[in-house]
C-alpha cells in the first residue's frame, strides 16, 4: 500500500518525495493504527490524511474547526478530480440535506465537517451507514483544554464518534503540542505512543527577532518601506489597534487589508481574498486571522503587541514562509502590553486554576522576550522538541552584536535584595531600591534602610530592570502566578548567591556595564 501512496503523491499532487514525517504517519494509518502527527505549520499535514483517504476504500471524514479552510481544501481536491465536499453551517438546509444524502450513498471520498456536526444524530446515522476509510482531526490541539485554542465541541466529538459503532482509523494532526496537549490527544483518541510521529518544530527559514525600546510605528514604517511588494501580516491584540494601524497604513499609501471578528463575514472574506490574491500586500489583523490560511509566500509577520503565550506566538509567526523561503518574524515588545494580556486573563470566564496556568504561560512569553539565548532554541525547548538544535545563527539574539558580560555580582545583589524585601514585591520597586531611589514608595516602606539599598546605583533603573527580567527569563528568579508579578527566589538562585555559579548576559555596548565603568570601587 505504501507503493500506492507514493504513486498517488506523484500522480495527484505532483510531488516526488514525501516530506519528513509524512511517510511514517501515512504508513501507520495504512497499517490500521490510530495515529498522531505533530508537524510544524507548512510541514504538509493535509497530505497525511489525503493520501490514505485516497488509498483506502470508503469515505474519509475530516474534522476541521475552520469553515474557510474546508472550502479551500475541497476546491483543491475537486480540481484534481477527487469527489469531495464539506458540510457546515455556511450551507442552506437543502444543500446540507442533499450532501448528506449523497454522503450516505458513498459518493464522496472526502467529507470536511466542523466538530459541531457530530452533535446531530442525523449525521451520526449517515456515518453509521457509510463505509468510512478514516476520521481525521485537523488542528487536533483544539481537543485539549491545555491547548491554547480549546474548543469544547471538539472534545464532545470523542464521545459522539463512539456511536458510529465500528470505527475506522483515527488520525490527529497538529502543529502545536506541548507535552500536556500531546498526552491529552493520545488519551482521548486512544493513540499508542509508537504511533505518534513528531517531526519537531524547527523552521529553518524563519528569522525571529524581538524589537525593544523602539517607537513601534517608526519601526514598522522603516521595515515595510523597502518591502512594498512583499506580503506580510501585522498582528495586533485588539480590534481597535487593528483599525488604527489599518487607517494609518492606508493613509501612508500602502495596500493594506484588515481582519478581525468585529467585521462582517463578507468584509472578512473580501479582505482575506484580496490578501491571498495579492491585490493587497499587508494584512493587519487580530488572532482571528490565519488559522488554516494557505498563503505560502508571506515574507514577514510582525507582532505589534505581546501575544498571550508561546503557542499562539509560534503559530501566528509561523504563517510566514510556508514556502520555505527566508522570512522574518518580528515581535515589537513593550512592557505596557503585558497589562492588556493580564487584563484579558483576569476578565475571562476561566476557572481559577486555568487562569493560573495562563498567567504562567504569559510569563514564559515575557521571558522569551528577555532571554539572550537563541530564540529558536528557546521555543523548541519550550515545546520539548525531540531533537537537539544548535543555535540557529539567524535570530536576533544569535546575530546580536553585544558584549557578553559576567554579571554574577549584580545578580547576587538583585537576588539578595529580593530576599531582603521578603519576596513580596515586583521588579519596579526592587530596581528602585537597588538604584538607591528616594521615591516616596521607597522611603515610606523604609527600604532605604536595608543593606541592599543603592548597591547598583552605577546602573540606570532601566538597566537594573532589564537585568531582573533577564534573571527571570533564565530561571534565577521567578514571578509569582497571578495578577501581581511578585519576584521570588528559585532553586537556581542558590548557587548564584553562594558564588558557585557565574551568570553571563549579553549587553548592549551602550550599557554602563558593557563599557566597564569602575563600579567596583
Ligand atoms: P500544514 O497543514 O502542515 O500547515 P499543508 O498541508 O498546507 O501544511 O502543506 C503546506 C505546503 O506544502 C502546501 O503548499 C503543500 O502542497 C506542500 N507540500 C506538502 N507535502 C509536500 C511534499 N511531499 N512535497 C512538496 N510539497 C509538499
TrEMBL record:
**One Pfam family here:** RQC
Stretches assigned to the Helicase C-terminal domain? 218-365
Q: What is its EC number?
A: 5.6.2.4
Q: Name one GO molecular function term.
A: helicase activity
Residues annotated as coiled-coil are: none
What is the uppermost EC class here? isomerase
Instruction: Name the reaction it catalyses.
Output: Couples ATP hydrolysis with the unwinding of duplex DNA by translocating in the 3'-5' direction
Record SMART domains: DEXDc, HELICc, HRDC, RQC
Q: Which InterPro entries match?
A: DEAD/DEAH_box_helicase_dom, DNA_helicase_ATP-dep_RecQ, DNA_helicase_ATP-dep_RecQ_bac, Helicase_ATP-bd, Helicase_C-like, HRDC-like_sf, HRDC_dom, HRDC_dom_sf
Keywords from the named record: ATP-binding, DNA damage, DNA recombination, DNA repair, DNA-binding, Helicase, Hydrolase, Isomerase, Metal-binding, Nucleotide-binding, Zinc
Ranges of residues in domain Helicase ATP-binding:
26-195
Which top-rank group of organisms is this from?
Bacteria
Q: Which cofactor does it need?
A: Mg(2+); Zn(2+)
Q: Which family does it belong to?
A: Belongs to the helicase family. RecQ subfamily.
- The protein in question is named DNA helicase RecQ
Q: Tell me what organism the protein belongs to.
A: Pontibacillus salicampi
The gene behind this protein is recQ
Amino acid at each position: 500500500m505504501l507503493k500506492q501512496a507514493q504513486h498517488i503523491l506523484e500522480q495527484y499532487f505532483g510531488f516526488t518525495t514525501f516530506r519528513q514525517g509524512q511517510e511514517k504517519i501515512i504508513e501507520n494509518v495504512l497499517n490500521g493504527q490510530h495515529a498522531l502527527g505533530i508537524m510544524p505549520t507548512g510541514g504538509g499535514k493535509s497530505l497525511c490524511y489525503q493520501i490514505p483517504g485516497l488509498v483506502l476504500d470508503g469515505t474519509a471524514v475530516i474534522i476541521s474547526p475552520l469553515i474557510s479552510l474546508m472550502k479551500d481544501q475541497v476546491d483543491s481536491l475537486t480540481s484534481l478530480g477527487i469527489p469531495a465536499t464539506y458540510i457546515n453551517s455556511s450551507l442552506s438546509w437543502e444543500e446540507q440535506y442533499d450532501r448528506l444524502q449523497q454522503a450516505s450513498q458513498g459518493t464522496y471520498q472526502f467529507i470536511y465537517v466542523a466538530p459541531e456536526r457530530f452533535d446531530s444524530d442525523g449525521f451520526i446515522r449517515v456515518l453509521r451507514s457509510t463505509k468510512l476509510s478514516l476520521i481525521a482531526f485537523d488542528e487536533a490541539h483544539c481537543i485539549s483544554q491545555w491547548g491554547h485554542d480549546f474548543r469544547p465541541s471538539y472534545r464532545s466529538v470523542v464521545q459522539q464518534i463512539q456511536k458510529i459503532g465500528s470505527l475506522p482509523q483515527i488520525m490527529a494532526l497538529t502543529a502545536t503540542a506541548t507535552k500536556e496537549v500531546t498526552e491529552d490527544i493520545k488519551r482521548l483518541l486512544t493513540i499508542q505512543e509508537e504511533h505518534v510521529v513528531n517531526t519537531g518544530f524547527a523552521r529553518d527559514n524563519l528569522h525571529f527577532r524581538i524589537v525593544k525600546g523602539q517607537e513601534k510605528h517608526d519601526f514598522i514604517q522603516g521595515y515595510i518601506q523597502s518591502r512594498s511588494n512583499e506580503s506580510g501580516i501585522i498582528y495586533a491584540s485588539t480590534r481597535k489597534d487593528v483599525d488604527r494601524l489599518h487607517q494609518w497604513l492606508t493613509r501612508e499609501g500602502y495596500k493594506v487589508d484588515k481582519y478581525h471578528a468585529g467585521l462582517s463575514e463578507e468584509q472578512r472574506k473580501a479582505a482575506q481574498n484580496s490578501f491571498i490574491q495579492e491585490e493587497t500586500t499587508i494584512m493587519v489583523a487580530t488572532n482571528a486571522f490565519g488559522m488554516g490560511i494557505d498563503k505560502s509566500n508571506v515574507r514577514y509577520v510582525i507582532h505589534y503587541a505581546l501575544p498571550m503565550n508561546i503557542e499562539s506566538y509560534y503559530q501566528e509567526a509561523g504563517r510566514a514562509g510556508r514556502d520555505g523561503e527566508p522570512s522574518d518574524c518580528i515581535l515589537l515588545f513593550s512592557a505596557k502590553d503585558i497589562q492588556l494580556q493580564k487584563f484579558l486573563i483576569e476578565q475571562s470566564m476561566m476557572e481559577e486554576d486555568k487562569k493560573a496556568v495562563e498567567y504562567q504561560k504569559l510569563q514564559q512569553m515575557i521571558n522569551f522576550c528577555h532571554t539572550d539565548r537563541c530564540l529558536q532554541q528557546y521555543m523548541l525547548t519550550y515545546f520539548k522538541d525531540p531533537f537537539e538544535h544548535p543555535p540557529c545563527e539567524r535570530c536576533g539574539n544569535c546575530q546580536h552584536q553585544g558584549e557578553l558580560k559576567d554579571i554574577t555580582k549584580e545578580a547576587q545583589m538583585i537576588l539578595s535584595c529580593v530576599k531582603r524585601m521578603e519576596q513580596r514585591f515586583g521588579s519596579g520597586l526592587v530596581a528602585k531600591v537597588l538604584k538607591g531611589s528616594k521615591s516616596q514608595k521607597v522611603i515610606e516602606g523604609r527600604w532605604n534602610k536595608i543593606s541592599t539599598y543603592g548597591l547598583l546605583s552605577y546602573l540606570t533603573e532601566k538597566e537594573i530592570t532589564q537585568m531582573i527580567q533577564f534573571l527571570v527569563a533564565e530561571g534565577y528568579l521567578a514571578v509569582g502566578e497571578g495578577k501581581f508579578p511578585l519576584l521570588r527566589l528559585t532553586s537556581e538562585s542558590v548557587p548564584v548567591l553562594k558564588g558557585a555559579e557565574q551568570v553571563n548576559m549579553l549587553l548592549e555596548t551602550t550599557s554602563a556595564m558593557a563599557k566597564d565603568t569602575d563600579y567596583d570601587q
